[in-house]
Amino acid sequence: MKSLFLRIFLSFWIAMGLILTGGMAIMGSVQSYRVKSLYEVNPDQLAREARQAALSGGIPSLREWLAALHARHPALGAYIVDADDRDIAGQTLSVLTADRLRSYRARNHWRASLGLAPVGGTPVPPPEATPPEYQPSWWNIRRLTLEDGRRFDLLFDPFALSELDVLDQPHVWWLLLLFCFAVSAPICWLLARTISGPVGQLRDGVRRLASGDLGVRAGKPLGRRRDELGVLARDFDAMASRIHELVATKERLLRDVSHELRSPLARLRVALDLARRGGPRLPTQLDRIERECERLDAMIGQILQVARLRGKPIQAREPVRLDDLVREVVDNARFEAQAKEVAVKVAGIEGAVVQAERGALASAFDNVLRNALRFSPRGGEVSVTLRDDGGAYAMEVADRGPGVPADALPHLFEPFFRSGDARDRESGGAGLGLAIAAAAMHRHGGSVEAALREGGGLLVRLRVPA
């Protein structure tokens, strides 16, 4: 089942349906049992008992007889009414009994209007006078006469007990409660285990992650679930992987920074020692110190830029025309291109607009372009192309430089990465330019990739969502 909400809803719905169905079945069974218990009861025999009670003790004896009858046969309705249709025990007549009595009175009134004698109650034959084919009926109205001559009518209703009246019996309540617990307990237990088990696993994973175990994962059994808990487990694994990656990147960056800073600091120390000696080479050593300070300042600025781009998400976006941005960056880089006699050709679509952080996007493209110019041979050519790339815009920079080994392509955008002699410290800088470009594109939800060109050189493609 793909939805935890649906699972909870259906569990409660099925439990309630089973409880209601079972409760109705229990009440129906009790009702059926009580009704069937009347099959062996003879209404004429009960009428004889009532007549005997009427002759022996009058109305008090009849009330006692009614109470005893209700105790013996709870499913049977029995009423003894006077001429005003009032039951002597104060009972409320059932609907069926009231209709029968009303019809009986109306028939007598009609006979009286015609001058005919009223219809009396059905006579009760003595047991010895009952013919074999005689079948006693619950629906006959039987006449009871007291010693003082007062007359009452005895009516039976074998269907007077409704299904809800069954609830008046204590043992029925206990049966219903027992059935409710028997049905709801296993369903609720299974539902609780379904929810609490995965939640407990995720809780343990969160605690281990908080304690520093960055390799913890929710695991495949939980991650394969197709409900909300499975989605949560996969999100947890993605979060743990991202945190692991960020921490590993941070540690690697710290190691790389410490390594990269060591070399210029060592050169500065040597230059300072030489400068202290004075002599005719002092201006040269001071110039060297200045260059090393500038290199350190540029490197620290690039490190801070990488950290900023990998930090908080973009706070404010603005419409950026990519063709204008490309021309602006290319114009700024032409001085460096002219110094190496490298031609920069621009082609592609016009009017491409994206919502982006202009400074970060310009920095990414500028680093890629200057990287291409740095490794292009003198008199070479760098091609810049802007095109529609299916839901995104791609800015491609292609050069005819020495390129990189194929196995170095996946690492080309890592901080401080250099590939062999083609990217040594003298020509390749600190190895942060492409890392800045990658961080800027990921910050915009885009991507950056590199590929080797046929005939030599490198193609770097920056993709930003349209």
Element layout with pairings:
Elements: H1 4-36, H2 43-72, E1 77-81, H3 95-113, E2 142-145, E3 151-157, H4 170-210, H5 220-223, H6 228-277, H7 282-309, E4 318-321, H8 322-339, E5 343-348, E6 353-356, H9 358-375, E7 381-388, E8 392-398, H10 425-428, H11 433-443, E9 447-452, E10 458-465
Parallel strand pairs: 5-7
Antiparallel strand pairs: 1-3, 2-3, 4-6, 7-8, 8-10, 9-10
Helix pairs in contact: 1-4, 4-6, 6-7, 7-11, 8-9, 9-11
Indicate the low-confidence ranges by residue numbers: 421-426
- Helix run count: 11
Overall morphology: rod-shaped
What's the helical proportion of residues? 40-55%
> Strand share of the residues?
5-15%
Q: How would you spell out the order of helices and strands?
A: HHEHEEHHHHEHEEHEEHHEE
Determine and state the CATH class of the largest domain.
Alpha Beta
Give the CATH superfamily of the largest domain.
Histidine kinase-like ATPase, C-terminal domain
Query: Numbering strands along the chain, what is their spatial order in the largest sheet?
Result: 5-7-8-10-9
Query: What's the N-to-C terminus distance?
Result: 37 Å
Q: How many strands?
A: 10
As for the number of domains, it is: 3
Q: Which key features would you list for this structure?
A:
three-stranded antiparallel sheet, 466 residues, five-stranded mixed sheet, Beta-Lactamase
